[in-house]
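Service request form, structural biology core

Requester: graduate student, group of Dr. S.
Request type: structure prediction, single chain
Budget code: on file
Notes: please return the result as structure tokens.

Sequence provided:
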Amino acid sequence: MSQPSAPWSRPTPPQQGEQPRRRDPGAQDPGVRNPGAHGLARPSDGGHVPGPVSAPGPISAGTTRTFFYHRLALADRNHRWWMPLVEGVIGVGIYLVLSILFGIAIAFTLPESLSEDVLAMDQLDPAVFLLLFGSVALMLPSVLLARLVLGPRPLGLVFSVAGRIRWTWLLTCLGAAAAVYVVVNAVGIGLDMVTGGGVPQLELAPGFGWLVVLWLVVVPLQCTAEELVFRGYLAQTIGRWLKHPAWAILLPVPLFVLGHTYDVWGQISVGIMAVTMGVVTWRTGGLEAGIALHTVNNMVVTAMGMVGLADMNETSGSPSDVVFEVILNGVYLAIVFWLVRRRPALAVTR
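Core staff response, request fulfilled:
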């Protein structure tokens, strides 16, 4: 394998008939297909952690580059550095319009369930449940419509390096996340019973039937929408300007945490989960693993609230909640990394 030229040396000119080669600052070495499974410090330049870099220009014909998920916007020859900023403005505008229309529809059809203080409303009221989760789900069409305007192309690059949702991989990750949550929660309930907590008493929430319908339809859309924004749009926006994946993983975390009204322990737990979803997105080359974890987490929490095993309106946490979150996310992260190694056909770069 040829060695890269030193920054002060003149690159060797191409031989007659040979096409000149360009190397993208964020591109993986073409001979390396999958990133390392044990950390983030394995960029293509041998581990050097760069500072901000300017986005390279359009890709010329005959040039081949390999991109990780957070750098996929550079795969579009027509991309420009300013495009994600305009895309964000368009997305916010679309979201505001959809939110106003959605709020008006809820207010006219279900006015008796709503009060002035949204945070004080009972989240297990079907109308409130629809308002809270549905308003977040509106980010899904907002992001997709904004990306249709400016790109990058194809649209599916926001989902994965394959340019689409990889449904088999998504279902695999859903199964893995569900197994982790069932086992860890079962152990937690068992320990609580052994230490004198007693047998949990089930109590169905009023409007349980409507809640089940919303639980099956709206909650997965809400989780997918958040992943599209925080691990999709924001990560790929940062990836246009900053090469190392750590920037794309960590910089959206504070924004994600601030969107949750918990105390400090709850915020730390949310932050741990956000980092985990960012890491699996980078490692697997798509949003599927993060969507799976997010969806299973929210569906488990809301299901427990619907049967009286959790308080949906609780905003305080404890250090034990953080430990619980570390175990859950650590086990899921290990399983996803193992599954990627076991599935060589799964593309993690483009």
